[in-house]
Specification:
The complex is a heterodimer of chains A (137) and B (404).
Chain A lengths: L4 H8 L14 E8 L4 E10 L4 E10 L2 H14 L4 H4 L4 H8 L6 H32 L1
Helix pairs in contact in A: 1-2, 2-5, 4-5
Chain B lengths: L4 E2 L10 H11 L12 H21 L6 E4 L2 H15 L6 E5 L4 H12 L3 E5 L9 H7 L4 E5 L13 H11 L2 E5 L18 E5 L10 E5 L28 H39 L3 E3 L10 E6 L4 H7 L3 E2 L1 E2 L12 H5 L4 H5 L1 E5 L6 H21 L1 H7 L13
Parallel strand pairs in B: 1-11, 3-4, 3-5, 5-6, 6-7
Antiparallel strand pairs in B: 2-8, 7-8, 9-10, 10-13, 12-13
The chains are: A alpha+beta (137), B alpha/beta (404).
Chain lengths: 137, 404
């Protein structure tokens, strides 16, 4: 199967590879997939609690080239968006940007799931944090 | 050194120039039909196919009359299984095979099951070999055939065919072996090993595609088959159809070359394979060899690079032709059923690469491939959340994964 130039570019030069401290209250972590399915994506967002803007995003992915490209692209798109804007990213956007063939659509679905999981992790942490503050007050 | 490098010799092999040279006259001037009995065109063609028949027989310790030419190993497997099932239907309706067989065997068995036969699929041990006690206890008075491959096409492990042949003979059951990967690579002797039927293919041993053979024992016992194709009654009535003379000449020549060069070639293959293996093991952690190393084809290395997905690895070594057991590289999007049958877990199947060395690989190529694989595995592990977790000491088998 031939890969699109964009998939190859992300595979050869993955953007924003790495990890943040999961315990950081401003970091949301999403880990989706399973090793026995052949792909696991870890996507992390670092959110500015004042503005709700994602200031940084990082990923690590075990999976095929299209899975790596989907998550690499997701980190690019996440940076600079607000948490709510991030949730608007759809897997179909990733499919068209990377020209993924039908057999690779699940890679984009996984990336969307990873975004949602990371945001939801951040939100639940923020809610707990807010709860603590209100108790303090 | 020329790129890309071909190291997928279990899929197919390059035609040896000497084989092509032998075939050439039969693609040009000597074009007769070997069944034409009344002119020199036919006689020359027949002479060529009979010479090839002897060359094939000599490679596997058979006699010429026991060789039936076919279009390849898939047809040979079909003819053996369906031919025996139909011919011996009155004797019994049970076939024993193994979970790691080629699809040409497994899917033929599935069809036979639909037609009312009973099939036992023996599991394999973690080393890839069947358990002979399980084989013994699977045999019933309705068993007519045991079909167990000689060498596996993915992991290269060699089933104990001599022992299986002995058991089959003692119990009066026919024994078919798919010898596609073994013939021409390691010594095979149908007489010593009590093999009754054996499938072979030309293109796995530097011959042309589209031609193969089925060995069918003639004595002690005389094996009979129901033909699967109706027509002119060629090949002693077992396989109708005008003989593929140039292909058969190529198969014969490939067999003769393999026989003559096997002692030296298998040593060279093992040296190159072991060099590749040692380099990879020395430079990378968490690398697993799939299947026994003790009973194995000299040219096969099937290895899993844990925490790295196979297709992404292939993408990184795109000037090296190898294959992977990863789901993403298969048409069915399922990881290798052979590796799953070893019980190693789907994750290692997704991370597996099959290196199939061949006659035309050089040591320089092996060095290049080893370096390249090491680089790409290291790079992909930097990207791998699983490798990171492993390094942090997380037991991945205990993680609750969000399976999709």
């Amino acid at each position: 199967m031939a890969y699109s130039d964009k998939v190859l570019d992300h595979y050869n030069h993955p953007r924003n590879v790495g990890s943040f401290d999961k315990a950081d209250p401003n970091v949301g972590t999403g880990m989706v997939g399973a090793p026995e399915c052949g792909d696991v994506m870890k996507l992390q967002v670092k959110v500015n609690p004042e503005t709700g803007v994602i200031e940084d995003a990082k990923f690590k992915t075990f999976g095929c080239g299209s899975a790596i490209a989907s998550s690499s692209l997701a980190t690019e798109w996440l940076r600079g968006r607000t948490v709510d804007e991030a949730l608007a990213i759809k897997n179909t956007d990733i499919v068209s940007e990377l020209s993924l063939p039908p057999v690779k659509i699940h890679c984009s679905v996984l990336a969307e799931d990873a975004i949602k999981a990371a945001i939801s992790d951040y939100k639940s942490k923020a809610a707990v944090g807010a709860g603590r503050e209100s108790v303090k007050a | 050194m020329k790129l890309p490098i071909y190291m997928d010799n279990h899929a197919t092999t390059q035609v040896d120039p000497r084989v092509l040279k032998a075939m050439y006259p039969y693609l040009t001037d000597v074009f007769g039909n070997s069944a034409s009995r009344n002119h020199s065109f036919g006689w020359q063609a027949e002479e060529a196919t009979e010479k090839a028949r002897k060359q094939v027989a000599d490679l596997i310790g058979a006699t010429s009359k026991e060789i039936v030419f076919t279009s390849g190993a898939t047809e040979s497997d079909n003819l053996a299984l369906k031919g025996v099932a139909q011919m011996y239907a009155e004797k019994g309706n049970h076939i024993i095979t193994a979970a790691t067989e080629h699809k040409a065997i497994l899917d033929t068995c599935k069809r036979l099951e639909k037609e009312g036969l009973r099939v036992t699929y023996l599991p394999v041990q973690t080393n890839g070999l069947i358990d002979l006690d399980q084989l013994r206890s699977a045999i019933t008075d309705k068993t007519i055939l045991i079909s167990i491959m000689h060498a596996n096409n993915e992991i290269g492990v060699l089933q104990p065919v001599a022992e299986i042949g002995k058991i089959a003979k003692e119990r009066g059951v026919l024994f078919h072996t798919d010898g596609t990967q073994a013939a021409g690579k390691i010594p095979v002797n149908v007489t010593q090993d009590n093999i009754d039927l054996m499938s072979i293919s030309a293109h796995k041993m530097y011959g042309p595609k589209g031609v193969g053979a089925l060995y069918v024992r003639r004595r002690n016992p005389r094996v009979q088959l129901t033909a699967q194709m109706d027509g002119g009654g060629h090949e002693r009535g077992m396989r109708s159809g005008t003989l593929n003379v140039p292909g058969i000449v190529g198969l014969g020549e490939a067999c003769a070359l393999a026989k003559a060069e096997m002692p030296e070639e298998s040593k060279r293959m093992a040296y190159l394979r072991d060099k590749l293996k040692d380099r990879l093991l020395a430079s990378l952690d968490e690398v697993y060899i799939n299947g026994t190393q003790e009973h194995r084809l000299p040219n096969n290395l099937n290895i899993s690079f844990a925490y790295v997905e196979g297709e992404s690895l292939l993408m990184g070594i795109n000037d090296v032709a190898v294959s992977s057991g990863s789901a993403c590289t298969s048409a069915t999007l399922e990881p290798s059923y052979v590796l799953k049958a070893l019980g190693a877990g789907d994750d290692l199947a997704h991370s597996s690469i099959r290196f199939g060395l061949g006659r035309f690989n050089t040591e320089e190529e092996v060095d290049y491939v080893a370096e390249k694989v090491i680089d790409v595995v290291k790079k992909l592990r930097e990207l791998s959340p699983l490798y990171e977790m492993f390094k942090e000491g997380v037991d991945l088998s205990k993680v609750q994964w969000a399976a999709h």
